[in-house]
């Protein structure tokens, strides 16, 4: 049974990845906005922002990476919505394949597509002067946090992808997720914010995840911050997966 599920998921993932390769504008669109934000904040606002670091792009990049992921997962919801409306889920159900394989294929495709987008944004940051002395273990830690964050948001994206009544509705859920890093430590230190905003910013998960990634990239003592960030990612992933599977059973099976 497990081999059957894994084989079906692999075949359907290749199908989804081929769709991405046929429309590379998806990656371009996903990376355009984060890179534009990075250019704007570094070269326009950066001189007026005291981040407490020598290079503002070094401070900024972790938050931009989370914006990149939040922007990218909207396409997962969009592609799921298109599959729902085209009736492809019903056609797959009439075939001897694992029912949830098509769902997992979209999730894994999101992970691969967002990895490519993140690499493109990191490349742009390097051209803008980003430098990191982090070692291999630290970079693997960053990759692990970003991968878990991508999976967590992707499973949340599955819910509107399956239940939305329009393409705009499927995509619109990502707008608050893209905005959330702006009320965090992603762009400016939370100490510069007014009281109520600062309280929210310091205790929301994006700040904790951004700070953990930043500490790893700058070789700062991460302490328990990395574990707290991982716990948030895993917690969001578990909740998102549970609600996504409930939605899947109600709308498809």
UniProtKB/TrEMBL annotation:
It is a multi-pass membrane protein. The chain crosses the membrane at residues 27-49, 61-82, 103-130, 136-158, 170-188, 226-248. PROSITE patterns: ABC_TM2 (PS51012). The lineage of its organism: Bacteria, Bacillati, Actinomycetota, Actinomycetes, Micromonosporales. It is found in: Cell membrane; Membrane. Keywords: Antibiotic resistance, Cell membrane, Membrane, Transmembrane, Transmembrane helix, Transport. Belongs to the ABC-2 integral membrane protein family. It comes from the Bacteria. This is Transport permease protein. Signal peptide: none annotated. It comes from Micromonospora fluostatini. PANTHER family: NODULATION PROTEIN J. The keyword Transferase does not apply. Residues 25-251 form the ABC transmembrane type-2 domain. The keyword Membrane applies.
